[in-house]
Amino acid sequence: MPQVANPLDATPFLKNPCALIDDQTLSQFGDFTEGEPDVDSNHAQKLIGPRCSWYMKEDYSRSAGVVIDTPHQKYADPELRGLGGVYASKESGTIDFLQAVEIAGHPDYPAVIAGDREEISRGRCVVYVGIANDLTIKTSFDDEQNPSQACPAAQKIASAALETLKQGG
Question: Per the domain annotation, does 3 fall within a domain?
Fold first, then answer.
């Protein structure tokens, strides 16, 4: 399992995950609405983690998102925390696609594109980045019009989130 030598602290963003991604990053992909945070719902607290979603103003088939996966860090078995959980999902067959990727400018943070091969081919891409051995952030991009652009976009968004995390909020 890839290890994270210099863990990043996501605590400053747990109440404001939208601050992880700057408007300049999103504007590369089009004109997006203000980020919509979800930090206090049961979903955010116990299942997915604090998250933010952005939607394209003119074209709802495009959206972007970021999630801080704290529920796994708190509730999962130790070996399933962080990227370990993603690799275990591939081994168990819960997901059928997993590919290690390097996030531009951040080779020290292990990352994977993972999910359902069919969804990825339709333009829904999720990138999981280990920011600590027991914690990931997930960035996603949906682009039904240009499916091949979804994963490069999700990786650029991951790079921006890592940049923000390194600055410590």
Answer: no
